[in-house]
């Protein structure tokens, strides 16, 4: 958030909301000791959607070339869902490197790791097999 220009006081308030959370596990009708999570937000946290939107700004920054559905239509770079996302980009080495950089920055900012082993890459029929393999290797998918 600081990299995006948010004031230190604001970032501090948000981080207090994130760090104040504690959990306890109930086992055999007995409450165990409370503990603090190591990082990130709990699922369903009211802050989660807002932080998600802030972090997703990198996808809208213009670094990745999207696809156009029609000639005069807007360029689509990403579609975000609750547990998935679809990213559109240029099938070039530079395009793949830009995408990888944005995803790594997202990991650092959000403390969420992207599992590239569970990720897939789809290509236009105009992309050669050699280029597909090169980009898939570069992305680690």
Automatic annotation (TrEMBL):
Residues 1-141 form the Reverse transcriptase domain. Transmembrane segments: none annotated. Keywords: Nucleotidyltransferase, RNA-directed DNA polymerase, Transferase. It holds the Pfam family RVT_1. One of its GO terms (molecular function) is RNA-directed DNA polymerase activity. This is Reverse transcriptase. It comes from Gossypium australe. The lineage of its organism: Eukaryota, Viridiplantae, Streptophyta, Embryophyta, Tracheophyta.
């Amino acid at each position: 958030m600081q990299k995006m220009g948010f004031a230190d006081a604001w970032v501090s308030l948000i981080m207090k909301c994130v760090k104040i959370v504690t959990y306890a596990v109930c086992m055999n009708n007995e409450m165990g000791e409370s503990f603090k999570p190591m990082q990130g937000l709990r699922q369903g946290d009211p802050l989660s959607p807002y932080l998600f939107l802030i972090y997703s700004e990198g996808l809208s920054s213009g670094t990745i070339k999207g696809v156009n559905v029609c000639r005069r239509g807007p360029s689509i770079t990403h579609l975000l869902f609750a547990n998935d996302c679809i990213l559109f980009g240029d099938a070039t080495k530079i395009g793949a490197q830009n995408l990888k950089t944005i995803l790594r920055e997202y990991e650092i900012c959000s403390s969420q790791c992207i599992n590239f082993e569970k990720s897939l890459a789809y290509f236009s029929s105009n992309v050669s097999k050699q280029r597909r393999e090169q980009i898939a290797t570069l992305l680690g998918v």
